[in-house]
Amino acid sequence: MSKISVVFDFDGSLATSFVGGMMFNGYIPESKLDIARERFQSDTISLRLYQEEVFDSVSQTPAEMSQRAADGAQIRPLAHELCEQVRKTGGSAAVASAGLDFYIKPVLDRANLDQLKIHSGLVVSDPTCPPPFRYDYPSAGDACEGDWVTCKCKVINDLRDQVADSEVIFIGDGSGADECAATNAADKVFARGRLLAYCKENDIPVTEFGDDFGPILSYVENKTSANGAQ
Predict the structure, then answer these.
(1) CB-based contact 11:18 (threshold 8 Å)
(2) How confident is residue 1, by pLDDT bands cut at 50, 70 and 90?
(3) Which homologous superfamily is 3-20+71-224 in?
(4) N or C: which terminus of the chain carries fewer CB neighbours within 10 A?
(5) Using CB atoms within 10 A of its CB, is residue 185 exposed (0-12), middle (13-18) or buried (19+)?
(6) Phi first, then psi: what are they for 138, rounded to 5°?
(7) Rounded Cα–Cα distance for residues 63 and 42 (Å)
(8) How confident is the model at residue 197 (pLDDT cuts 50, 70, 90)?
(9) Could you give phi then psi for residue 221, rounded to 5 degrees?
(10) Which of 49, 31, 32 is nearest to 40 (CA)?
(11) Please, what's the b/e burial string for 209-228 (b: 16 or more CB within 10 A of its CB; e: otherwise)?
């Protein structure tokens, strides 16, 4: 049986929506958000600094935002089935996100996906204290092309090293680190949104996924079945 591992992007991929945006939209003065967004879109500041600037302006504590994330976010259908099928192959599954742990972990916990290892930015200040927050970036890569919070290439390559002879699938929807991972690290890419467009424009082999993880689940089942084993 072929071993297959999976690395999920979180916002818009494993989660059905941009949960990070849910945390700050409506909880930060619109003028501050517009200024930060313009600075990011003009490449004046990096994604990491943009995220810090925005979250340091919110009107809630990490604990309050964690509760909102758990209550409001949804995991994409067939995520459990996909993770279970990956486990059966002897592979592993992980999350690689440019977001922050305080809104990712409660969503996974509530969805009973707490076995997934999370690679993301961390807020290390007291969760009951308002901003500004203290941050840590244990999954940033020294060789990463951009200041993207998490080096998704490193997550994929480390997982490949940890699970010998494993094919590593990347599932994403964004730009930046997602594009880098699809180009330089993943064995197989499933995408939607900006990442799907990028892969098609750059002739990177890619398979589209939609409202659920059906295409990825079918791929893993077929690849690891008795007839499909390599």
Answers:
(1) yes
(2) low
(3) HAD superfamily/HAD-like (3.40.50.1000)
(4) C
(5) buried
(6) -70, -15
(7) 32
(8) very high
(9) -60, -45
(10) 49
(11) beeebeebbebbbebbeeee
Cα(2)–Cα(187) distance, rounded to whole angstroms? 13
Beta bridge partners of 100: 121
Q: Where are the domains of the chain?
A: 3-20+71-224
pLDDT digits (tens, 9 = 90+) for 88-127: 999 999 999 999 999 999 999 999 999 999 999 999 999 9
Residue 218, H or E segment: helix 214-224
- Of 157, 167, 11, the closest CA to residue 74 belongs to 11
Burial class (CB in 10 A: 0-12, 13-18, 19+), 165: exposed
107 and 69 Cβ atoms separated by less than 8 Å:
yes
- Residues sharing a CB contact under 8 Å with residue 156, sequence separation 6 or more, in sequence order: 7, 96, 168, 170, 181, 185, 186
Tokens of 187: 């064995």
Q: Is the pTM of the predicted complex or chain greater than 0.85?
A: yes
Predicted confidence (pLDDT) per residue in 26-73, tens digit = 999 999 999 999 999 999 999 999 999 999 999 999 999 999 999 999
Whether the pLDDT of residue 230 is over 60: the answer is no
In whole angstroms, what is the distance from residue 139 CA to residue 142 CA?
A: 10
CA-closest candidate to residue 160, choices 96, 77, 82, 70? 96
Q: Helix crossing, 30-41 with 47-55: angle to 10°?
A: 170
How is residue 6 written in tokens?
């999976």
